[in-house]
Amino acid sequence: MSSFCVIGLGRFGLNVSKELIQMGHEVMVIDKSKQALMQLSDIATYAIEADVLTEGALSEVGIGNFDCVIIATAVEPQAAIMSTMIAKEAGVPLVIAKASSDLHARVLKRVGADRIIFPEKETAIRLAHLLDNRGIVDFIPLGNDITIVEMVPLSAWVDKKLKELDLRQKYHISIVAIKKGSEVNAVPHADSKISAGDTLIVIGKSSDIENIK
């Protein structure tokens, strides 16, 4: 079990807090709105009403004792920047900050954020890729133009072994897992055969994956 502190209970902060709590982690939530805190007060480990712009507010709640701090208050850039600085100065190993713009992201990175997220932007990109290629079931960008997708096999791939398809040579992609119902072949080999109804986990450059037809 890990310990998390989530600052800001908008839609993103609220949902990530709920998921972490359901997974059994220790979660402290912080927001200046008592109404927002009431949504999690019965299930969060701690629910703290505080304005992070108030001097000493985060230090008083022991921000440095958490394994990860998630700063979900992008609507107030100053609050996100200050929270990031204080969390890193307190020795938090992992600080994840939600950014509202590219400029905001650069500032957050400069003051110490370990990871910057754009939930709305990432969701929009993911949806666009799903709509662009109906064969793709899910889409996860890893950065540096590398993507993992969950996709149904092309009809030409069905009943073929991986060595027959030679996908690395033809498409510059790799199949890293094959799902057959509830079973997952996490280490497919050259003689692994693709069947109708399989789901393939594929990794490659985004541009190469887009060329799969």
UniProtKB/TrEMBL annotation:
User: Which InterPro entries does the annotation name?
Assistant: NAD(P)-bd_dom_sf, RCK_C, RCK_C_sf, RCK_N, Trk_Ktr_HKT_K-transport
Instruction: Tell me which Pfam families the record gives.
Output: TrkA_C, TrkA_N
Alphabetized Gene3D superfamilies for the sequence: NAD(P)-binding Rossmann-like Domain, Regulator of K+ conductance, C-terminal domain
One MF term in GO for this entry?
monoatomic cation transmembrane transporter activity
Mention one GO biological process in which this protein takes part, according to its record: potassium ion transport
Q: Which residues form the RCK C-terminal domain?
A: 134-213
All copies of domain RCK N-terminal, residue ranges: 1-117
Its domain of life reads Bacteria
Record protein name field: Trk system potassium uptake protein TrkA
User: Which species is this record about?
Assistant: Ezakiella coagulans
